[in-house]
Amino acid sequence: MISVVLPCYNPLDGWCQTFLDHMTELNGKLPDYSIQYIISNDGSTRLDLQKIDMLMASPNVIFLNSEINEGKGSAIRKGTNRADGDIIIYTDIDFPFGTAPIVEMINVFKENPQTWFVYGNRNVEYFKKLPFKRQLVSKALHRLNRIFLSKHITDTQAGIKGLRREILPEVLETKTNTFVFEIELIRKLVRKKIGIRSVEVSANPAIVFSDFSMKVLFREAVSLARIIMMSSIWNDIS
């Protein structure tokens, strides 16, 4: 079984039909697999309950509801903790990269038994479409990743990742709730020499990119500083 975890926070109008379209498309591309879809709601305030009931009428759709907005990291931990699949993929509720990278990740796992984690690596065209502030943040994170993680890993923030169930405990042990929680996760995997690969991803043409507010940037910076500090303490202990 494959589990697809979809963190969700106040999605745009039409998200339900977008989800159904991509679910149908992915099921068609992977007919040999049973696919479980887990929507992990992170305190959304404008979800139509009738649409949720309609989605849950499907036996392979699970809706997890958190009334408090805790952050993307928290939503992914809750969703992956509920997953039954041997392979777990998580991506955003609007499928910003489409379904092709999910199929590619499944093939990577199938063809490479020593690969335990796969991350999306956004291409150049993707970054050109980002608002200027987000471009600057992304470039800064790329530099940090090369120093803090590995010279081979630059893009940690693409909203699509895949893992084998065996390393699910590494995900559940992360502490960061914000977007940068994946830096904490990948840092753990690199330290344990767990097999990591990437697949190139590009943005769905219909995706509208939002910009970061200063409040969000500050929150992410605090989370990142905490990750670096805790990693330094762990290095001193070990």
What top-tier CATH class fits best? Answer: Alpha Beta
**What order do the helices and strands follow?**
EHEHEHEHEHHEHHEH
Count helical runs: 9
Strand content: 15-25%
- Cα radius of gyration in angstroms: 17 Å
Domain Glycosyltransferase 2-like: 3-171
Organism: Dyadobacter psychrotolerans
Pfam families: Glycos_transf_2
InterPro entries: Glyco_trans_2-like, Nucleotide-diphossugar_trans
Describe this entry's structure for a reader:
This is Glycosyltransferase family 2 protein. It holds the Pfam family Glycos_transf_2. One of its GO terms (biological process) is protein N-linked glycosylation. InterPro entries: Glyco_trans_2-like, Nucleotide-diphossugar_trans. The protein has 238 residues and is of the alpha/beta class. Strands 3-2-1-4-6-5-7 form a seven-stranded mixed sheet, sandwiched between helices. Strand 2, helix 2 and strand 3 form a beta-alpha-beta unit.
Structure, briefly:
By secondary structure, the chain is of the alpha/beta class. It is built from 9 helices and 7 strands.
